[in-house]
Design brief:
By secondary structure, this protein is an alpha+beta fold. The chain is built from 25 helices and 38 strands. The site of magnesium ion has 2 residues, from loops.
Length: 875
């Protein structure tokens, strides 16, 4: 039996022998592309080649690509675990032709590989072909069908509709028919009983698609019509885990050697057996699948978080925790214990996994623990919702309540339903769905982007000259209108540009486009799309054909460059001071400040921060010149000792940026000499996730601004302290004086309250055998309370203290009774509560002492009378 590793290798070797260049997998987490968060198919990394934005340096390419299908167009998350052949993360084997071979070879080679190399039984294979679509004038893909007929009987060639057999990159762009290969894995008896052809594309777990061959031959325009694609493309994708299942004679992807080690470990750790109970099995599959996704994302620097890709990862992790909690009975962090095994198993093929094992474990453990706390809180909140519903005589939990749990507390709906069922309750599912829809609509409106077709002014490719020039002569190649969040703006692509497009954390340049006719247009930002710098403007020049001068705002750019170079120096210094475990996990560089996120397990101490700052600043003062190498093959960059070599795409030539011993792969803009930075000052250090710290810093003019403001506040403070030369001593003196004054006031107040008590007692009237001590007027609440206690201290029997006072416009009632009166049945708490209604307030306390505040001072007299009446001391 072939092992999974042998299967992967055989695929690559087969296509290598057919003249394909074998390239590495691109990262699974995509940075710098607003349209896609995760790689979801092998073709993603070749998008700019397919769109014609970048030449292919090899026209035939093949690889195995890590893919993730958990958001957007492909979202298989809900299936995963319940079925046996969809994963969140999986490997896609693929081969490509960029304007080279087309349908003939693509089909013949797929057939040859499956039936002759790995020797699948041809009788079990089916192919689908596009049946045509009359409204768009598209005919059946008879070309593909004809080729298949050489290999398969017509009964194994099945027509498929536009949904299954016409592939589109997006709403616009390359598209074309596709042909899928399906395999029937059922037993001979089952196959004899029911014809496999009837089960293709019908969600039967034993009759599944393994390979999709896409023939891109059209380009869809913004108005929806199709034009022929100049360079036709073959794009294929085969599910590696599914192929392993077919070749290893298994009925489930999870029974192949890709998953069995992890499943056994889950079984050992949880003490549950796989294959005995349906939901236990689902939970084990979910855990095994999601673990891979989470670990690989963290290795690709995508940590679980509250937004965007990070939120997707957090949700996946929580889904796994929830299954493990509910069905494997694990109430404590569990998944992190599987990381070592995963790293052993896949670390050779994916070194980033092995290298970052400790960080991955720590992040997963912390996330699990925090979600388990949420689960506890959610269960408590749900209990209170259930009680509320039951008290109101209902057996149904409101949809809004379930949604609050789901949305605010991350509490999963199916768990809510499970708990409700245990309590004999239902869920108002329609209400929940309505809330969900409202939220989705809100999100969609916020994110919707409408783009017009490109208006092509002239052909050509954009060249970036911004590493060397701040300004250049240029022409407009094309432009289009874009609408987002109700705002309209334009995107312009130039023949030549000095504008740096936002990438690698550094923000895009701003500047101007000045026409030969003198017209000036502001460029408010520059972004990257499909590897091209796109200039954003609010209007288009009247004459788009003329020559232009493109000029960046150099002040902003220089400040960004200083912060970017400062980031490199910081990175190096952090590794020297804290250790080599420090790895960059994210960065943000703008003209105003820089942020640098890195792996480190505890707080960076103030002393360490000082040390880092001193190292960085000494290197700035050394005035080291930039040593830049453009277009370096990755191997050479490695030799120079460049950091951050994971996550490069195939064919990438890299740029190495060196200052002294700092060597980094970087596409950003930098200062010509470290001396240009002036100085760096760290202004913040914090934790952003388990094992990840963030440093914020300013450089150059930013430091100057900060020092100015510190100096200004110092001056103001000194002026406030009477301009004394030793401000520190002056402040210390003021603090001491203040404490002494406070002590004196306290003493004075105590004496005053003492004599007030005495006077009040002297004036007390005796009514019905009770001494009634009264206080009214404007009084501090503390004073009233102290007097009350003094009265109880001085008159131990048959005495009542009654106060109706106010302070800052707020009325206050106070009653204190001697103990014998309480024993006889009087109650200060009940009395003030009742009387407080007359001052529009409430309150209470103990039977011997109580106070109540209110809102209406005008009710004080009536309230006082009420108290007297209740206590039986009225006149
Ligand atoms: P399906 O209909 O089975 O979901 P698909 O039409 O979404 O498949 P494609 O987008 O054509 O699949 O992807 C190419 C190949 O990748 C498929 O033939 C299949 O073998 C594999 N594949 C797709 N989705 C998954 C997944 N979630 N997990 C594992 N393999 C997958
Ligand atoms: Mg699918």
């Amino acid at each position: 039996m072939l092992t999974s590793k042998e299967i992967r290798d055989s695929f690559k070797k087969f296509f290598q022998d057919k003249g394909h260049k074998i390239v590495p997998s691109a990262p699974m987490v995509i940075k710098d592309d607003p349209t896609l968060m995760f790689t979801n198919a092998g073709m993603n990394q070749f998008k700019d080649i397919i769109l014609g934005n970048r030449p292919a340096d090899s026209k035939r390419v093949a690889d195995s690509q890590k893919c993730l299908r958990v958001s957007g167009k492909h979202n298989d998350l809900e299936e995963v675990g319940h079925d046996t052949y969809h994963h969140t993360m999986f490997e896609m084997l693929g081969n490509w032709s960029f304007g080279d071979y087309f349908k003939q070879e693509a089909i013949d080679w797929a057939w040859e590989y499956l039936t002759e190399v790995v020797k699948l039984d041809p009788n079990r294979l089916y192919a689908t072909v596009f049946e045509g679509y009359a409204p768009e004038g598209l005919e059946r893909d008879n070309e593909a069908a004809g080729i298949w007929e050489k290999h398969l009987p017509v009964s194994h060639i099945i027509n498929g509709n536009r949904k299954d057999n016409f592939w589109e990159m997006g709403e616009t762009g390359p598209c074309g028919p596709c042909s899928e290969i399906h395999i029937d894995l059922r037993s001979d008896e089952e196959r004899a009983a029911v014809d496999g052809a009837t089960l293709v594309n019908s969600d039967n777990p034993q009759v599944i698609e393994i390979w999709n061959l896409v023939f891109m031959q059209y380009n869809r325009m913004a108005d929806g019509h199709l034009e022929p694609l100049p360079a036709k493309v073959i794009d294929t994708g085969m599910g590696f885990e599914r192929l392993c299942m077919a070749l290893q004679g298994k009925k489930s992807n999870y029974d192949t050697d890709v998953f069995t080690p992890i499943i056994s470990e889950i079984s050992r750790l949880s003490g549950k057996e796989y294959g005995k109970d349906r939901m236990t099995d689902v939970a084990m599959r979910v855990a095994a699948d999601h673990l891979r996704t989470i670990a690989f994302s963290i290795a690709d620097s995508q940590l679980p978080s509250n937004a965007k890709a990070g939120y997707v990862i957090r949700r996946i992790l929580r889904r796994a925790v929830r299954y493990v909690y509910t069905f494997l009975g694990q109430k404590e962090a569990f998944l992190y214990q599987l990381v070592d095994l995963l790293a052993d198993q896949m670390g050779e093929a994916y070194p980033e996994l092995a290298a970052q094992k400790e960080l991955i474990k720590k992040v997963i453990k912390e996330e699990e623990e925090s979600f388990l706390r949420t689960l506890d809180n959610g269960i408590r909140l749900l209990d209170s919702f259930v009680k509320k519903a039951k008290d109101a005589g209902s057996n149904t939990l409101k949809g809004e309540d379930a949604f609050v749990l789901y949305d605010t507390y991350g509490f999963p709906l199916d768990l809510t339903e499970l708990i409700l069922r245990e309590q004999g309750m239902d869920l108002d599912r329609a209400g929940f769905d309505a809330e969900m829809k409202k939220q989705k609509d809100r999100a969609r409106n916020a994110a919707a982007v409408e783009t017009g077709d490109w208006v092509v002014v002239r052909d050509g490719e954009e060249t970036f000259v911004g590493y060397d020039d701040a300004e250049c002569e240029t022409e407009i190649l094309r432009y289009r209108k874009v609408k987002q969040k109700g705002k309209e703006f334009f995107q312009i692509i130039l023949s030549k540009t000095p504008f740096y497009a936002e990438m690698g954390g550094q923000v895009g340049d701003k500047g101007t486009l000045t026409g030969a006719d003198g017209s000036v247009i502001e460029i408010f930002d520059t972004k990257k799309e499909n590897n091209i710098g796109v200039h954003l403007t609010t209007k288009i020049p009247e004459n788009v054909d003329q020559k232009f001068t493109a000029a960046i705002n150099t002040e902003l750019r220089d400040a960004s460059a200083a912060n970017h170079t400062a980031t490199h120096l910081l990175h190096e210094a952090l590794r020297e001071v804290l250790g080599n475990h420090v790895e960059q996990k994210g960065s943000y560089v703008s003209p105003e400040l820089l942020r640098f996120d890195f792996s480190h397990f505890q707080k960076v101490t103030p002393e360490e921060i000082r040390q880092v700052e001193h190292l960085v600043n000494s290197r700035i003062r050394k005035a080291m010149a930039l040593d830049e190498h453009r277009d370096l093959p990755i191997a050479e960059a490695k030799e120079m000792g460049a950091m951050a070599l994971f996550g490069e795409k195939y064919g990438d030539k890299v740029r190495v940026v060196k200052y002294g011993s700092s060597v980094e792969l970087c596409g950003g803009t930098h200062v010509p000499n470290t001396g240009n930075i002036g100085m760096v000052k760290i202004i913040g250090e914090s934790s952003i996730a388990a094992g990840i710290r963030r440093i914020e810093a300013v450089s150059g003019a930013g430091v100057e601004k900060m020092l100015d403001s510190i100096q200004d506040s110092m001056k103001e403070i000194s002026a406030m302290m009477g301009g004394q030369p030793d401000v520190k001593a002056a402040i210390q003196k003021a603090i001491n004086e203040n404490a002494e004054l406070k002590r004196q006031i306290d003493e004075f107040m105590a004496e005053k309250i003492q004599s007030l008590t005495k006077v009040l007692i002297e004036h007390a009237e005796e009514i019905n055998g009770i001494k009634v001590v009264k206080l009214s007027g404007e009084r501090l609440p503390d004073v009233v309370k102290t007097v009350a206690f003094n009265v109880r201290r001085d008159l131990t029997e048959n005495a009542a203290f009654i106060a109706a006072t106010y302070c800052d416009g707020k009325p206050l009632l106070t009653v204190a009774l001697s103990d014998n009166l309480v024993k006889e049945g009087r109650n200060a708490g009940q009395t003030v509560r009742e009387a407080a209604k007359l001052i529009k307030g409430g309150g209470g306390g103990q039977p011997f002492f109580a106070q109540a505040g209110g809102k209406d001072v005008n009710g004080l007299d009536a309230a006082l009378a009420k108290i007297e009446e209740i206590l039986g001391v009225g006149k």
